[in-house]
Amino acid sequence: MYHYDQYDQTVVDERVAQFRDQTRRFLTGELSEDQYRPLRLMNGLYIQRHAPMLRVAIPYGLLSTRQLRMLAHIARRYDKGYGHFTTRQNIQFNWPRLEEVPDILADLATVQMHAIQTSGNCIRNVTSDHLAGVTADELEDPRIYCEIIRQWSTFHPEFSFLPRKFKIAVNGAAKDRAATQVHDIGLQLVKNASGETGFEVLVGGGLGRTPVIGVVIRPFLAKSDLLSYLEAILRVYNRFGRRDNKYKARIKILVKELGTAEFTRLVEAEWALVRTQLILDDSEIERVTRAFTTATYESLPATCSTLDAALAEQPGLRHWWSHNTAPHKIPGYRVVFVSLKLPGQAPGDMTDSQMDALAELTDRYSQGELRVTHTQNLVLADVKLTDLQALWQQLSGLGLATANIGTAADIICCPGLDFCSLANATSIPIANGIQQLFEDTDYLYDLGDIRINISGCMNGCGHHTVGHIGILGVDKKGEEWYQITLGGSSATEAALGERLGPAVSRDQVVSVIDSIFTVYRNIRTDEEPFLATVQRVGLTPFQERVYGTH
Amino acid sequence: MALIKDGQPGPNDWQHLDDSETLPALGPVTVSLKRWQSQRDGLNRDGQPLGIRLEASDSPEALGDMPQEIPLIVLDMQAFTDGRSFSQAQWIRERLGYAGELRVRGDFLLDQVFYLARVGVNAFEFSDASQAQQALPRLHEFSVRYQAANDVKQPLYRYRNTAPIA
Q1: Neighbours of A291 (CB within 10 A)
Q2: By the CB < 8 Å criterion, does A282 face chain B?
Q3: Alpha helices of A44-91 — where are they, by DSSP H?
Q4: The complex's ipTM?
Q5: What is the CATH code for A135-286?
Q6: Number of CB atoms found within 10 A of residue A285's CB
């Protein structure tokens, strides 16, 4: 965790006071709905189908057990006993009362949490790799820079009323687990020819209505220039981004309309003027680094014979090991994924009692910290091999050890029509319907790694355009229909899915997905993952099967 | 109309002229940037004060590099959601080094006063005195400022732990 000092704490405390006053003015009629809207949005508060929805930031996905216990408290005290983890490392509460939101924010501030800029046309929660700090293929821990950017962007005097929302992701590993290519700004830590570490800067990626893969506008940016370069990009966007049409207001449209070369020229020209005025000092990078807790590791053997024996004997443990754990850079340790994809439940949802119990387990087995993933699961990053079996048993008892991470049952899904006032179609029941195909887990495991993303409308909160299989809910004359895309990916070789064909009706979706699985099983070569098969054969075999029979 | 200037309530003696209104012989007036560009010399009234109003869509580049002689520049906000005014202020103060009065009027919220003050706006025009009263404490709504801006020339990390929280 990054530990707040008195300055950071003062910011969140004063924000609570400010929002309490804004909400009071709204409730007494001093502020109109139109005036209150941007203010509440900048605190992550939406007015939704049933009740307000509050989005709380989990900066770069990092959470202490103290914070998780507070989230449990909030779910219990102010909500209906659960929270929903999102694809952007936030948590959403679906049932708070408007009058109580200032109290929720006050409770959050006691554990160094907030909802600042989790919505609205401003710089949002900066996201990162959920394996940061524990993965072997990492150049540097990206979360240090996320925190520096978080502070720089918090109440930025010039960039808080942008044409549209603005999302930044930072990745430090060779493998992109932060989806940097589909962010307004993606920062990838790289080394230059002389061995210095800095950032490759991508701009103009994004999902939503007009999905676009970002373009590199600077192959190498020195760390000392990070904030001045961000300032230059944001200034060009704030000045020239379109404000006449909210669907054309993201920076990706500006980059497209100007062309990458002209956009880059404007940024570089602006940067030349501000570069020397905003140097990110090494001493600040060091201070922020020191303010993070560092994990302490024992010197352990790289294998554990007791665990190996248990793995040989117990298929359940074995499946969990192979799907829900990942290598750790330190010998004797393992990364554990906590699955929030129990079939039949809303993907990403977690109850207050699960949160409390998981906080206990995290304190016992993983040094008191956990992470939120982009796939709506959680991670305990520092588990000893010798503790794995015990942890698995206890997670199983909590319904948090479904061995399905990375499989077709690990579905990424927005709240959909059941909760969201923007949605055209339900998404959670579709996810649950697909999960029901896998009562036979052998079938699930045989399918291998498949990422399915479901969004209930084209705003795309379920990131359907980068799903290996994307499912997008659309409204057709008051009925829910679904468009299917294949071949998307947000990994290192990011790609946008291609439309399979005409939308299918709600009662057909699950069988269509099943047909896609069947085609894949029939035509894959040995060990070929789903995405590779789609890339190899294209859409035709899938189209023939799906539209030939419907 | 009520004014806050340099953190104090004060009188407003400026008249904001529409493009169709004739200039009075005497007294401080502001005109739109468009009018200032097209009529320039015709606006000269033997040294009577003349200010310029910028809408959010106006390019601050149009001010040229000599606005020092202009006694008042007004950011005329048509919609509080249009953040271009904030970048105009930044340009006028930092790039042009303008030291005169930079005022905001029109559709802005009390909750934006803090941000506007930070980018260099030093005068705020309100429709009534009670708004102006409520705005005063909001000039300092947050005592911690992470970024360098017009009000604080260094980012917080340059003076962290050496300065008390205001």
Answers
A1: 15
A2: no
A3: 65-78
A4: 0.96
A5: 3.30.413.10
A6: 18
